[in-house]
Write a structure and sequence with these properties.
- The chain is mainly alpha-helical.
- The chain has one domain.
- It has four helices and no strands.
- It is globular and about 35 Å long.
- 17% of the residues are buried.
- The C terminus is likely disordered.
Length: 78
């Protein structure tokens, strides 16, 4: 969970941006998004709320990307 906190900090501070560091931006957005939307256990509840609060205060692009991020997968039939 500490790593996700570092991702949030990198996004909030602007150290990682979609223009300057697109791969790291995608990785950070992916992990932050997964924590927010998939970690529903009570152990991580406070961390989720803290991250959501920080994200709501930052740039529109980052906030929109995190909230709209989805993984498109294709299932191969054998």
């Amino acid at each position: 969970m500490d790593l996700v906190g570092l991702y949030v900090e990198a996004l909030v501070s602007g150290a990682v941006t979609s223009q300057r560091t697109p791969l790291m931006y995608l990785i950070a957005v992916h992990h932050v998004n997964r924590l927010i939307y998939l970690q529903t256990d009570s152990q991580h509840q406070q961390m989720r709320y803290g991250i959501i609060t920080r994200i709501m205060r930052i740039q529109d692009e980052v906030r929109e990307t995190i909230s709209m991020f989805t993984i498109h997968t294709t299932h191969a039939r054998v």
